[in-house]
Amino acid sequence: MTFLFTDVEGSTRRWEADAEGMRNALAAHDEVLRRAIEGHGGWLFKHTGDGVCAAFASPRSAVDAAVAAQRALELPVRMGISTGEAELRGADYFGVALNRAARVMAAGHGGQIVLADSTASLLSGVDLVDLGPRRLRDLPAPIQVFQVRADGLRTDFPPLQALDVGQGNLRPAPTSFIARESETGEVQAAIKAHRLVTLTGVGGVGKTRLALEVAGRLVDEFPDGVWFFELAAVSDPAVVPDAVAAVLGITQQPGRSVAQSVAAALDGRVRLLVFDNCEHVLDAAADLIDAILAASATTTIVATSREGLGIADERQWPVPSLDVGAGVDSAAVALFVERAQHVSPRFAVGNDGEAAAVVEICRRLDGIPLAIELAASRMASMTASEVRDRLDQRFRLLVGSRRALERHHTLRHAVAWSYELLDDMERALLERCSVFTGGFDLHSACAIAGSPDAPDDFAALDLLDALVRKSLLVADRSSGRTRYSMLETIRQFAEEQLVARGEASQIRAAHSRYFAGREADILALWDSPRQREAYDWFTLELPNLRTAFRWAADQGDLDTAATIATYAPFLGVLLVNYEPIAWAEELIEPARTVDHPRLASLYVMAARCWMPGRIQAAVSYADAGQLVIGSGRHEEVPFRSEVMLGVAYAVIGQPERYVEWCRTQLARGRDTHGMTTASLVFALMMAGCGEEARAAANGLSDAAEATHNPFMLAYMHHVKSGAFRDADPAGALEAASRGLVIARDSGNRYIETLLASNVSHLEAEHGDPLAALDYVTLAIRNYHDGGNTTGMRTALALLITFFDRLGRYEPAAIIAGFALSPLTSTALPEFNTAVAHLREVLGEATYESLARTGEVMTTAPMVTYAYDQIDQARAALANVSE
Prior knowledge:
By secondary structure, this protein is of the alpha/beta class. A hairpin with a 2-residue loop joins strand 2 (43-48) and strand 3 (51-56). The model is unreliable at 401-408 (pLDDT under 50).
């Protein structure tokens, strides 16, 4: 039989407060229960004060009756259901099944339907929530308890009542729990699925606090208690079993070790054991935990450690740093503010400057909760801005209360706790890897080891693996190749140790030489069908290239610095990243002073500063660079790209000088990959020599195909599409479209942007006007995102010619005021024609007024204005097409 027991929660208080109201409510309650029970084939055989007892032949009928009653009842009624054999005596039942139904009911809450496992195992098609094993009053062993979930019923209830939960030593956590809700749920799920879950992570990341929170939420799941073991104070691994036995009150049994005695005593107990800070006694803790799990199938264990225990079936759960990406709304900032208000109750992040400072603090502290809490404690006597400005000395700044655990007195203690557990080889590699910025791979780690006893690849791999397992390095495999990094707090600590050893200068020099030494390999990769890999490498290693250049330049290592300042801007420009151009500019004077072999290359790279707007400086570099290259005393410029010096002249409206420079280089026999010939075609177009440009363009595509170099091929298509734009628009559009695909596939944003402008121009005149708007938008966006203010004006000038054709005269005039430059007037004759037409249709005075509006606009507002006007034009064209 299946038995349903019910009871009104808090009925005594209701009778005392309103006896008449309770009497009426109870009459309605009785009628609802009677109809529900009888309507589902049950027999209401007893009233018990404010509740009833009913018997059913079918477990499903009992559940359906309980659900129907709960939906109709107005009083808070708790219900318990159990199935089993019972003895009928007259009009009443007796037996174990009734006792269990009564105890299950008593554990529940008003509105809740709770089932014993004896009923749940017989059901199908019923939505049940497993509430875990429960030790209920007067029952000799825990039983599995479930909650019924159904439409129209409340689902959230407090923990079950009347449980024997007096065991365990878990105490309330010392601090409030912030911003880890998702992690808490994931760890709880892991604990329900695995008998051993190890929370791993760097010191101070919050492993202990998360373990305490999860254990507190699961306390009702373990009738024999939750037990917490703090191992940080255990210095001798041999006494780990004794420390655990002392907490549990277990004595050593004759013929058994302490560990065996502990394991045996836990057999049959439904307990959660939390082993905190296992890393310094890792093997001893692992041995004890392994023995416990082997002896007791009902014990679950959570461990916290800087690395996993290495036990079979262990579920490692890396504890992440707090999120900082959401700015002031991030978890890290929420923690900072809450902890800051403990020491400064009026602290808030309402001020924009202070809010930005708090976000920066949390970001630079890697989202590590301990570091953030220590920083927040400084709010008693400092501002957030003052703390932020001192984070370079974080190990002196971030000092906490002496009442904290020893390893958490300061940020230095937290990191040193892990560092001191490393062996000499692990320490040495960690320290040396601190010179990397933005991460590193196995090859670069081996390169900076740099001593005769340095590890080979396999030995280094073992060391890196150990450092990852100990949470001092992070391994990222998302790109298909492993890349290592360390949190900035760890990096600064390791760097301090490197300096203290007196090895910092040696390792930083090795780091710089390594990245200078990558030039040949990376440029060879660039000059191949795998060109995209060279761009990806540059993007990934830019922080290291920056650090390597800075060190070499500051130390006067001109050979190393000049090498980096040659190939980094070569790649950077093609990715629309102009930062390395400044490195070449910085070295011009020291290289000129000693007539360095790389001087010609430095001038070529520096002359590209016209892109971010330093036009006169670019012309000066071009003038000087021509003389240096003409002397023939210096190393060759990569891929004969010295021809690009002439672009600076085109930018100031003197394309004929560009033509002259290209011809000079061709006369010297310098035309690697057809680059110089292609540049001549481009220069001739800008100089208005269309027939000559087309004649020179013949054969370029075949030459480019032979190189198997995606940049060269895309650049040839760009040049060809420009040269034949008027003579063969269809062929020009085909060439530009093919080149655009190649540029995108190879990752070359610079050529992609040039070709997008070409396609837009051709589509506007001969094809799809909506497509023309899409491509000119792409060109504007790429130029703006990269900071190429000079190129952006040419894209805007192209937009003006299109707007003029569409009759959008006023926005065209405003944009023209911003876009006007010697380059736009020279490179795009249609721009001059459009401006003349705008003056005619708007009138001279109106045009000048509108143009002045655009002329005084800064870049960001102009780009926003252009996007808005493009959207309006697109909408108008779409309406016409419909």
